[in-house]
Design a protein that fits this description.
The structure is a homodimer. The first copy, chain A, has 23 helices and 30 strands. By secondary structure, the first copy, chain A, is α/β, with parallel strands linked by helices. In chain A, 56% of the residues are buried. Chains A, B: It holds the Pfam family CoA_binding_2.
Chain lengths: 716, 716
């Protein structure tokens, strides 16, 4: 076995060290400082003081000597110390000049609050491109423009004018948020707090001329207080950096939950009309998140609900979930949800069911467990029932629906002692309680380590997400491939290669291909048939070879089922004559003769170059699956065989590979190996490969084979 | 044209008049009355008094003369007046005796609170069957046992012991809830109130030995205060009555939202283990709801969120929705949600876009409309922007995401005047506002006719549901078929019919079939070929005919591509000999000769008998679509051609009928007619038809044809 290597997709681009001065500054200057604590130039000073920021604050305003109780400086240059971070809170027209002053001072990071750039059209784009150039030249990390800044709840650096931070947060939490939109981040801060989330960091990136979502994500991945990362993004311009950040978060075992807008065609059209960022093909983006173990949320509520669970819940060691309920019907509703989300509603062992029946004679004991209303009148019985489930059923997760009990004057106060007792005996289980809550009981339950929900199905959804994270963190890095790619020398010219050359490249990439023989005359066709016949006595096919003829059959360029040398020679003459007649003037590179394929299931595997994420491998079954139903799976190259297996399993059609429809099961391992090999090749030659289509790639019970291929190259 | 008739599926079974005494009693007796207002026999008296019930209350308790300030009666018999409703709140063992007393009194309705029946196993089933028999004999409508009763908020008849009603409701609302589970109903009452719902009726059915979900649904459909109906159900034992109730609600244009548990196999297994009701095949249940315009919710939150929107929102005249947002990104998120849910995100007309740019220079103007943060500082501009969208864009629905503004001290108070102004100019539009709200502003906005949401995607989901209801109410009753079914005389015997007889029945049902000719000898086969040849010169097929041989091809019983009279005769002898050899001893009814089919798309249409809903028609495309992907649609018979078209459109494969994959578009009208005809036949012969499989039913550009069929009959 070769040594495991990680193929770098592009040079590493995230420079974490340089973000420190920006997000953990020891001193902050505010250019355009205001004495009015309600103004954009006054709020950050107000917040920094209020949050107990432990660094130096330098208000810069030439018309004042004192601002909000601090000495005001006439200019950044006048500050008699080094400054880590400059906040630029002046009108757009004055930002360029301010940034030049920052550069001259040697300050290594700046936030531009000011709006009036790319969001206002082409002139604004030019203006912000100029800012980016100044920043690059001076080595300044720039946040914004048109952003709401950030709040670091660990050191009190609330460098923002966001109105919703008014209420603050009295200690550092464990959830980091990074948002491209300030409006979303403002909304989300409050939604998150309402959901019981305490933030560690709250970052907005705005127009992202330098520091972007990938930087923010990587910073949060490395931040010691941040346990869970929430992301809101509208586009992704640099897929490699985004993937680097996702990989870093996964390596640190930090759950990442992402809302990305623009999934449908309507949505994507609107994104490109209002931001400059590339939205990327959504199914590819989706695949990237899956590949790197992130969770994609489809609503604001889901983002914060999953974030809440990940911040407060234990990641379960298995998918085994116990569902307990005081209402049998709701237990069933939750079982449906759990099944839909791939959790394992393993039935209780028979002795455990018997023990439960002993306690609650008419309980539903299988799983879901219906503890019935009987336990409401006897919380000790409730406790003992839960103990049977957890102890004898050995579930890693448990969700319990308690109806309205949390609000009941009579029963509400008994809930906390019940669950504290359960928790004491099972400190390591993931326990979720769904009921309507009195806020005080709710908080106490959370402090005792339980996840609490009002909507019972959301409890199940959240536990499924926790399992998703555990599973993702537990597996090997799928992008660390185990064999070096073997760089090939490819033709220099751009454009499609003919079938023979394409098959040769595919074969050199390690993918089994049909043994095609190039022939230039009827005589050579005869000889080729003889070789094929000698090797196994199969029938043969003869095809015209031309990079200019994608639809060979329509042009009469294919002859199937050749049984003899004579037929082979005649087929050559016939096919060449027919092509010359039906497609006059096209360049023909002779023909090929190949054995007819063994029967197998026809799949389509290929590569295309995503503008954001580079080479992306696709898999699908031939026929209606890929073409009509778009039942295909994507992965960003490179990836290993295990990742390829997950990719195959994602398609609905994969049931057919396992022998549905009465057919034989085929060798999925060979198929997975071919996908992994193709991904490694595409990754190694990312600059040259425009696309590869292997269609069909025929997979049988013990072998597989590329029957046709088109490789399209980019110029050197 | 024949006159439109409605085919009764079964005799009408819902007797609304008899429910009046139960749900709108003029007098209530409580058997097992308690002086303790916290006990099961005391709570209903407490509630009836507290809710200002306007009828007579008779506590029955032989050990007391006065209960909660009312005269107590020693027995029901002693009450010197007729009693509409008897509440039985005694232990299970005493219920039978109590019910006999109710019967003797001539009281026509009773509620049995008591638990301890079917939920406790076989003995309990026997016990409650006995109660049902007593009730039937005496003409008593029975609610329960093991139910929480009901609350009628119109007349103060709160005949329940549900603890959560403690807080009450000071006037009658417009949302009716009917729930099989008391625990769910208790939970749901509070979830609904929290969501801003005011209830008209709150009904629980428990073990449903008589009054069931269908009765409750029908009662709510007829109830004048109820505008929207929410249903929680665990099973459905009588599909015809449930459909009757759904149809009644639709006829009254009342939106119905349903949570039904037990969708997955795991869920369904748990349902049948804890209730006696039949869960029904879930895809059929799903089809029934779609067919009758009800909305299926997948969580408790969704049930009440859609219920809230239907209770307070206008049903939109079209699917056109405007999405406006102060955050471009969230606008895109909402556009995604709207597209997924089938709404029409029609772009703004170009002049409207220009007008909007005039107002807000850097707005995103297409749709979603990004009004940008500029409008936050100028609510008049906000108002004028919304006016451009609604007036010039002509949308029936508008959703507006306002971020955190609802909570802002500065901007929050301006929200209400803004929307009041919009509402004044557009009283008929469906307007939804999504933001974080101060509760007072929220309530004022609702009172001004707006729908309010915290989660913006839920606003879109709710508007899509309103459109779903509008569309459903606007169309003709799909079960009112336009041609009489033409009753056929069917063989008396049970079991499968052979292909010839099956095709004959299918043809008599009005469905085009291949012209198969029965042949009993080589000579007859020759003659049959001659007839076919004379009619069009097509090749022919010869097949053995046997009801005992489902797999004809495997037994060598089929010969395709017959070109001459001689071949036809030889084929007969050959096929008969082969079948005799390969399948010795089976009964053979000769053979058939038929023309080979014209090329077409192979579909599968069929009927099966659902245990709950009776004859159900299925449609799917042949091949992997139906067999592997289960991409099939169901409808309960009978239905009309328009409903059949909706059924076809539900399958993903329907794109192929319209000409995907480069094939010609086929005549979907003929296919829809065949499905409607099949449904009419199946409905008319519901007692005799076990199943019908027409596979394939080949559909071409101008014609369609059943090529093979198996009809299975039930005995007379």
């Amino acid at each position: 076995m070769n040594e495991t290597i990680s193929l770098p997709r592009t040079p590493k681009a995230i420079d974490l060290a340089s973000l420190d001065a920006l997000f953990r500054p020891r001193s902050v200057a505010v250019i355009g400082a205001s004495a009015n604590a309600g103004k954009i130039g006054g709020l950050p000073i107000h917040y920094l003081k209020r949050a107990g920021y432990d660094g130096d604050i330098y208000p810069i305003n030439p018309r004042r000597t004192e601002i909000q109780g601090l000495k005001s400086w006439p200019s950044l240059a006048a500050v008699p110390a080094a400054v880590d971070l400059a906040v630029i809170a002046v009108p757009a027209a004055q930002v360029r000049e301010a940034l030049l002053v920052v550069a001259a001072k040697g300050t290594k990071s700046a936030i531009i609050f000011s709006a009036g750039f790319a969001e206002l059209g082409a002139d604004g784009v030019r203006l912000q491109d100029e800012l980016a150039a100044i920043g690059r030249k001076a080595g300044i990390r720039l946040l914004g423009p048109n952003c709401s800044g950030y709040a670091n709840f660990a050191n009190g650096a609330w460098v923002t004018f966001a109105p919703l931070l008014e209420e603050g947060q009295d200690s550092v939490g464990n959830v980091g948020l990074v948002s491209q939109s300030g409006a979303f981040a403002n909304f989300g801060y409050r939604v998150g707090r309402n959901r019981g989330i305490r933030f560690s960091q709250w970052l907005t990136t705005g127009n992202t001329i330098d520091v972007d979502i990938a930087d923010g994500l990587a910073f949060l991945a490395a931040d010691e207080n941040t346990k869970v990362i929430l992301v809101y993004m509208e586009g992704c311009a640099d897929g490699a950096r985004f993937i680097e950040a996702l990989a870093l978060a996964r390596a640190r075992r930090k759950p990442v939950v992402v809302v990305k807008v623009g999934t449908t065609e309507a949505g994507a059209a609107a994104v490109s009309s209002h931001t400059a960022a590339l939205a990327g093909e959504d199914s590819v983006f989706d695949a990237v998140l899956r590949q790197y173990g992130a969770y994609r949320a489809r609503s604001v509520e889901e983002l914060f609900d999953i974030g809440y669970a990940a911040a407060n819940g234990t990641l379960p060691n298995s998918a085994k979930i116990a569902i307990t309920s005081i209402s049998g019907g709701v237990g069933v509703l939750l079982a449906d949800e759990a099944a839909t989300r791939g959790l394992d509603i393993a039935p209780m062992p028979e002795p455990a069911q018997a023990a439960l029946r002993e306690l609650v004679p008419f309980a539903g004991t299988r799983n879901p467990v219906d503890v019935t209303a009987q336990v409401i009148n006897d919380f000790d019985l409730f406790d003992r029932s839960l103990e049977v489930v957890l102890q004898q059923g050995d579930y890693d997760m448990l969700v319990c629906f308690m109806g309205y009990l949390g609000l009941s004057k009579e029963y509400g106060p008994r809930i906390l002692p019940l669950w504290e007792s359960v928790r004491r005996r099972h400190p390591e289980r993931t326990l979720a309680v769904a009921t309507l809550f009195d806020p005080a009981i709710r908080q106490a339950l959370e402090e005792a380590g339980h996840l609490v929900f009002e909507e019972p199905t959301h409890a199940v959804r959240a536990l499924a997400a926790l399992r998703h994270f555990a599973e993702s963190f537990g597996r090997a890095d799928g992008a660390a491939v185990s064999r070096p790619p073997g760089l090939l020398s490819l033709p220099a010219e751009a454009g499609p290669l003919n079938e023979l050359d394409s098959l040769a490249i595919v074969q050199a990439a390690g993918i089994p291909t049909i043994g095609a023989i190039a022939v230039g005359s009827a005589e050579e066709a005869t000889q080729a048939f003889r070789r094929i016949d000698a090797e196994g006595g199969r029938r043969a096919v003869l095809k015209v070879v031309s990079r200019e003829l994608p639809h060979k059959s329509e042009a009469g360029g294919v002859r199937l089922g050749i049984c003899s040398e004579e037929e082979a020679g005649a087929a050559y003459s016939e096919v060449m004559a027919r092509v010359a007649q039906r497609a006059p003037g096209i360049a023909v590179d002779g023909a090929l003769v190949a054995p007819m394929a063994e029967p197998g299931i026809e799949t389509i595997i290929g590569v295309h170059r995503d503008p954001v994420f580079g080479p992306v491998v696709m898999f699908g079954l031939g026929g209606v699956f890929a073409e009509v139903l778009r039942d295909v799976a994507f992965r960003v190259a490179p990836f290993d065989v295990a990742e390829a297996r997950r990719m195959i399993a994602e398609t609905k059609a994969s049931a057919i590979l396992a022998g549905a429809r009465g057919g034989p099961a085929v060798d999925v391992g060979i198929l997975a190996q071919a996908l992994a090999d193709l991904s490694r090749f595409a990754s190694a030659h990312a600059e040259r490969v425009e696309s590869i289509d292997i269609n069909p790639f025929s997979v049988g019970p013990t072998a597989a084979c590329a029957l046709d291929a088109v490789v399209v190259l980019r110029g050197e």
